[in-house]
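Whiteboard transcription, Tuesday session. T.W. wrote the structure tokens on the left side:
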């Protein structure tokens, strides 16, 4: 009887193990780099890369997002002062400006310009709380 129970438990483990240990599609990666690091040398990151940043603008019709560095947002306290902006093509639901996101994808040339093609986007907001939206429609941070 005990042997049958062990065999049953073992069989369930074999069946469920791939399901239980499979990484979820929308999980946050510990290996994400910031926008500034990526923009300094994008050619260094051939293949898939995960980037973390703050959405400064969205262009729903073009399926584009402008992503800026988290540190720049912390320093200037607005999303309009970034020196580097990463253009991101994203076909999913658009995040809101000022949200912190983590994107995974690859860099490609499109119309003789480098563009980041995001395959996944995870909203990890909470680090930057929007305090107010000023008269120009830009978020200001605490």
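and on the right, the sequence the group agreed on:
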């Amino acid at each position: 009887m005990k042997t049958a129970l062990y065999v049953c438990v073992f069989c369930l483990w074999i069946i469920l193990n791939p399901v239980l240990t499979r990484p979820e599609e929308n999980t946050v990666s510990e290996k994400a780099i910031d926008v500034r690091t990526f923009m300094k040398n994008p050619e260094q990151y051939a293949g898939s890369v995960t980037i973390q940043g703050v959405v400064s603008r969205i262009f729903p019709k073009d399926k584009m997002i402008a992503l800026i560095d988290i540190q720049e947002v912390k320093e200037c306290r607005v999303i309009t002062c970034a020196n580097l902006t990463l253009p991101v093509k994203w076909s999913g639901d658009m995040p809101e400006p000022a949200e912190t996101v983590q994107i995974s994808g690859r860099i490609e040339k499109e119309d003789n310009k480098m563009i980041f093609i995001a395959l996944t986007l995870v909203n990890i907001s909470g680090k930057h709380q929007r305090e107010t939206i000023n008269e120009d429609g830009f978020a200001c941070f605490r």
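Someone added at the bottom: The longest strand covers residues 49-59.
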